[in-house]
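Long-time lurker, first post.

We've been arguing in lab meeting about whether pyridoxal-5'-phosphate would sit comfortably in this protein at all. Half the group thinks yes, half thinks no, and nobody has a model to point at. So I'm putting the question to the forum: if I give you the sequence and the SMILES, can you give me back a predicted structure of the complex? Inputs are below. Any interpretation is welcome too.
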Amino acid sequence: MLKRYLLAPGPTPVPPEAMMAMAMPIIHHRAPDFIPVLDSAKNGLKWLYQTKNDVLILCSTGTGGMVGSVNNFFSPGDKVIVVNGGKFGERWTKICQAYGLDVREIIVEWGYAVRPEKVEDALKKEPDIKGVFVQATETSTGVSHDIKALGEMMKGREDTILVVDAISALVAHDIKTDEWGLDVVIAGSQKGVMLPPGLTFVSISDKAWKKADTAKAPRFYFNFKKEREALAKNQTNFTSAVTLIIGLNECLKMLQSEGLENVFQRHARLATATREAVKAIGLDLYSKESPSNSVTAVLAPKGIDGQEIYKHLREKYGITAAGGQGSAKGKLFRIAHLGYADTFDVITAIAGLEMVLKGLGYPVKLGRGVSVAQELLMR
Ligand SMILES: *Cc1c(COP(=O)(O)O)cnc(C)c1O
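Top reply:
Settle the argument with this. Predicted structure of the protein with pyridoxal-5'-phosphate, as tokens:
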């Protein structure tokens, strides 16, 4: 038998409390029993997002939330800026282009965060830019972009909205949706929220809703105005993902009893311990700056393929972490500390990593990284 440990940046482990709640017989989404369930989920999400705005609950993966955030607020030909610093930045460009938007990419070298001045310069050069798309955490490189600074930039611009893919960042990072002026913020169930895949959440500011009145991109399934009307009645436009929303309430309850500040501190503590342990082993982080608290991307040492490290972790020790994506495949591997994660997830990851590296012939002293992590996790 090989016991399995899930330490990937999505899907992430689901707490037993949520699994149990989701094992109950299904209820009907238009029956009165479901009204308080959706009401509670919608209010819990507002708390998590730190917003007074509506947070839509849609049945799809996170990418569906990204698609809806393009076709509900923009029209073909609209000029937009995409911050592209990795696999998910690339996805913004592809979605925007699929809907006929006129994309200006700000290419950021993988492993780095965007310089906010670059976005500001691009906005000044073309005042008719209608939107800026960015990741809060670029999961493929483990880097966080400064969405607070970008939000500041939006404040005086009535016709430009900031669209933030926070799919891997929400819960691990303090994201002040309203205070920072983030117009559209997208998350997904299988990341920080600790649920199986299948839900996406989208918060929408008044400024973004105004754009929805004139946006002409085609839409049917992701029709945010219809979802807003349904949400006001504690419904969704189509069949609600009843089971997942019941699970969502359990997860939100757990996060609420921990307290938002403590949730962020836990993620910061786990991320710091992971980074310092990896460095103590002698490896370098792939993220050259602003490493995320959701996932740690590590540069594979010279002569060792990052995919081999990822494969050995899984095949020999039952640890599912993640490899590299796109052009970074082979160059790195990634360890998540996101959602239902605590002290011994980090210890497991670091201990497994040391064993894998030793097995691959890398000169590692067993226990060096683990002891660094232990020291930090005792604080
Ligand atoms: C996981 C992830 C997505 C994609 O989510 P899916 O649920 O696979 O559609 C998008 N953006 C980021 C930053 C992610 O981490």
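For your lab meeting: The chain has a mean pLDDT of 97. Residues 16-257 form a domain with the Aspartate Aminotransferase; domain 2 fold (CATH 3.40.640.10). Whichever side wins, do check it experimentally.
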